[in-house]
Amino acid sequence: MNDTLPYDSQQLRHLAGELITNIRELGHAGWTPATSSNFSMRLDDKHAAITVSGRNKTKLTEADIMAVDFNGVPVGNDLRPSAETLLHTQLYKRFPEIGCVLHTHSINQTVASRLFAADGKVRFEGYELQKAFHGNTTHDDVMEVPVYPNTQDMTELAAQVESSLDKQSLWGYLIDGHGLYAWGRDMAEARRHLEAFEFLLACELKMREVRR
Ligand SMILES: CSCCC(=O)C(=O)COP(=O)(O)O
Ligand SMILES: [Zn+2]
């Protein structure tokens, strides 16, 4: 911590490095098209490190990661945080154990969000890969991933999400026609969850195709 900033700027730089490396990999996988997607990590008990809005996620530098408080207000900078900052900070505010939130726009995530929007959820059951989620010990567990209607009003979207947050072992959700949010206690866990969601959604899409 220094005299002028209410967070540790060295820690912000450290998290920026971890974010940039991981985001670049997700970008190269094709999950962040056209400046979409946003990413964050908990900086301390009042602040998060998050991507600046509108940046090409395959070409981020340290200057593209900024600090915000848990109300989404920039702290120690005059940059514009992700338009979806509130969806990240609501999770850090509510769950002290959450350390990382990843939001991507892959084709599978987006198509699945449209197909399952009418049901309001996607159901996973019988997949060995469900054990990739923290707390799941068997393929027999039933996982229900919420699908929310999209809106440009982040306060409204955050309120919809808030209504599902009581569920134990919720590690992500879809937004209709938009993409996926996934999180974990640290970057490694959030990525594992994100990749597991991507795989399971691809399986569900394939199952629909072969059943037609
Ligand atoms: C061009 S993508 C539309 C906005 C979006 O969904 C997204 O994930 C990126 O927004 P940000 O403000 O974080 O760049
Ligand atoms: Zn988005």
Task: Produce a short descriptive summary.
Catalyzes the dehydration of methylthioribulose-1-phosphate (MTRu-1-P) into 2,3-diketo-5-methylthiopentyl-1-phosphate (DK-MTP-1-P). The protein is of the alpha+beta class.
Explain this structure to me?
- With 212 residues, the protein is an alpha+beta fold.
- The protein has one domain (9-211): L-fuculose-1-phosphate Aldolase.
- The protein is 34% helix and 19% strand.
- The protein has five helices and eight strands.
- Strands 3-2-1-4-8-7-6-5 form an eight-stranded mixed β-sheet, sandwiched between helices.
- The longest helix is centred in the C-terminal third of the chain and has 25 residues, at 187-211.
- Ligand L4RZE5RM binds at residues 34-38, 51, 53-54, 82-84, 103.
CATH topology: L-fuculose-1-phosphate Aldolase
Counted up, domains total: 1
Averaged pLDDT, please?
Answer: 96
Secondary structure tally, helices: 5
**Strand tally:** 8
H/E order of the elements? HEEEHEHEEHEEH
- Distance between the terminal alpha carbons, to the nearest Å? 59 Å
Rg estimate, integer Å: 17 Å
Ligands present: the ligand CSCCC(=O)C(=O)COP(=O)(O)O, zinc ion
Instruction: Tell me the CATH superfamily.
Output: Class II aldolase/adducin N-terminal domain
Helix content: 25-40%
CATH class: Alpha Beta
Which architecture does the CATH hierarchy give at level 2?
3-Layer(aba) Sandwich
Strand content: 15-25%
Silhouette: globular
Largest sheet: 8 strands, mixed
Biggest β-sheet: strands ordered side by side in the sheet: 3-2-1-4-8-7-6-5
Low-confidence stretches: none
Q: How does the helix and strand content classify structurally?
A: alpha+beta
